[in-house]
Amino acid sequence: MLEYKNRYGDVYTFTKQEDGNVLWEGGFEHTRAGDDYVDPSGGPFIKAGQMLSHIVYGDDLNVIVESFERIDTGYIIKCKEHEYDPNDMSHLADTKIIGGIINTTEK
Q: What's the whole-number mean pLDDT along residues 32-55?
């Protein structure tokens, strides 16, 4: 379980469940919510597609947010595992910058 304190001092807890989803509990009295986001007053704003560990810092929350289910004590954040290959450098393959020098002759 991880705790998150927002800018108003409200404390929210995030508990990873056995099924891989995350139980998000706290005070949600003043909350905006839509199909793909939940935004309690003072934060944290969480939306589908985000990696949860980028908002609530903790390695066991290294999951991608898919959707939300409202429950009495808060929300179940439906998640999928983040698949990460530390050897994948494919994001560098299309660059025009080589060794810090911009290749201006290539078209």
A: 95
